[in-house]
Design goal:
The complex is a heterotrimer of chains A (about 110), B (about 270) and C (about 70). Chain A is mainly alpha-helical and about 110 residues long. Chain A is about 60% helix and about 5% strand. Chain A has a domain of about 60 residues. Classes of the chains: A mainly alpha (about 110), B alpha+beta (about 270), C mainly alpha (about 70). The interface between A and B is large, with 50 and 45 residues.
């Protein structure tokens, strides 16, 4: 038996790497093993929080770009966003998660980013 | 009698030339009206035992069928309990299958993936910006202000990166689309994976399509390309029109997890 | 040299897995005995890990007999 479906590339290792990277980090069903449930839940929750945070940041940047913010507003936004970012870092550390762990296939939500 | 199902084909005739699938069993057609389901009998072994060989055998069968029929490849490990089960399935999906077989008639799928030199492009954007921007960091910036300024720089960088990505993709897609009936594009799945695309191409346009690919490839030094196919049209089977259950959707993503995994939503462990 | 050859097989296998495990006609229903998503993921990983062995075993050798005893 031979596989005739041809795959041609000069860079097989690189594509293997990219394909593995782009596959969902979050499993399609959360592992129900009680020891891992917390971890899986933390990942999901933090990913969602981070998503919202990033959306807020992006929205802020759009306002900056449009020039529709006062000096004071920029100052306050900076403070708030910085606090959110730091808080996020703390939460990630508490749960022992890296940036890559929170990289979720957003599906249709991905367009929001 | 467990029947492993490989594909739905646009014929109710038997398969003349012997084709062998899982466990070396010969495949045969279970006809229903003007179509049929290609199956083979499975022995009593557990799924895990046949997985490795099974997946490759499954793919091999669909490719051999592709040479002679229009094929709707079926997801691996779809197993029915006897011929009645297969017939019942075809009865309930007849309309869907018919529509798909008509639409996909005489067409095959090709996959193209492109890795772009994102570091190099990022650098060129930064350099261009350095030249045109007159203002640099204002030393009297408060920490909050500086935070916003840095964030804004990052934001502009990633917006420009996305613009460049879109430009490259549009050019490539323009060339490929000329010979394609349908397409599905995923842009920037990762930082480096500029494009992950599948194209539905008529069998007699395969040569032209490949040529278009070679042309694009030679016109983009520093980019890395992957070309795969011809495949049966895995990515172009569309069963969503006549069925609306989320369960049947081939791709599960965040929405599906949130909606369906109740054990996740119901817990108060968070 | 061997390394590149191995990776070529991996890339082919990944392309196949991506299609065969999750695309095409995907049906779930009462009449189907099919593997749940979890098992499919498991299968995917398991197949990938042993892809080299599999490819080497399969190279040029047709499957001539049943893998299991039929009951």
């Amino acid at each position: 038996m031979t596989i005739s479906g041809v795959v041609e590339t000069d860079f097989p290792e690189e594509f293997v790497g990219q394909m593995q990277k782009s596959n969902d980090v979050l499993p399609k069903r959360i592992d129900a093993n009680p020891q891992n449930v917390d971890r899986g839940l933390a990942k999901l929750v933090l990913t969602l929080i981070d998503l919202i945070r990033k959306l807020l940041e992006k929205q802020a940047m759009r306002r900056v770009e449009a020039g529709s913010l006062s000096e004071e507003e920029i100052e306050r936004l900076g403070e708030t966003l910085m606090k959110l970012e730091n808080r996020m870092e703390e939460l990630k550390q508490i749960f022992g998660l890296e940036d890559e762990d929170l990289n979720l296939n957003l599906g249709p939500l991905g367009d929001l980013m | 009698m467990r029947l492993h199902t490989y594909a739905i084909i646009d014929s109710s005739d038997q398969v003349d030339e012997p084709i062998y699938g899982l466990e070396g069993a010969r495949v045969y057609n279970v006809p229903y009206c003007d179509m049929g389901a290609i199956v083979s009998e499975l022995g009593a072994g557990s799924i895990q035992d046949i997985a490795e060989q099974g997946i490759l055998a499954h793919e091999d069968v669909t490719e051999k069928l592709m040479e002679r029929f229009t094929v709707l490849p079926v997801r691996f490990n779809t197993i029915y309990d006897g011929t009645e089960g297969v017939l019942a399935m075809m009865q309930s999906y007849y309309r869907d299958f018919r529509d798909n077989l008509d639409r996909l008639s005489n067409k095959v799928e090709f996959g193209i993936k492109v890795i772009w030199p994102s570091d190099r492009i990022r650098e060129s954007i930064v350099n261009a910006r350095k030249k045109s921007d007159k203002k640099t960091t204002v030393p009297t910036d408060s920490p909050n202000r500086k935070f916003m300024r840095d964030k804004f720089e990052q934001y502009r960088l990633s917006e420009e990166l996305e613009n460049r990505a879109d430009k490259f993709i549009n050019i490539m897609d323009m060339f490929f689309s000329k010979f394609a009936a349908e397409k599905k594009l995923k842009k920037l799945r990762t930082e480096d994976l500029l494009l992950d695309a599948v194209y539905l191409v008529e069998k007699d346009k395969q040569g032209d399509f490949k040529e278009a690919f070679e042309h694009i490839k030679s016109a983009h030094a520093g980019f890395k390309f992957l070309f795969s196919g011809p495949w049966p049209p895995y990515n172009f089977v569309d069963l969503t029109k006549n069925t609306d259950s989320l369960e049947d959707s081939p791709q599960r993503d965040l929405f599906d997890i949130l909606i369906q995994d109740r054990e996740l939503v119901g817990t108060d462990k968070i | 040299m061997h390394n590149i050859a191995v990776k070529s097989k991996d890339v082919t296998l990944l392309e196949i897995l991506d299609r065969v495990l999750d695309k095409g006609v995907v049906i779930s229903g009462d009449a189907v005995i099919s593997v749940a998503d979890v098992d499919l993921i498991y299968l995917g990983l398991k197949v990938l890990l042993s892809s080299v062995e599999t490819m080497e075993r399969l190279r040029g050798a047709p499957i001539t007999g049943p893998m299991q005893e039929a009951t």
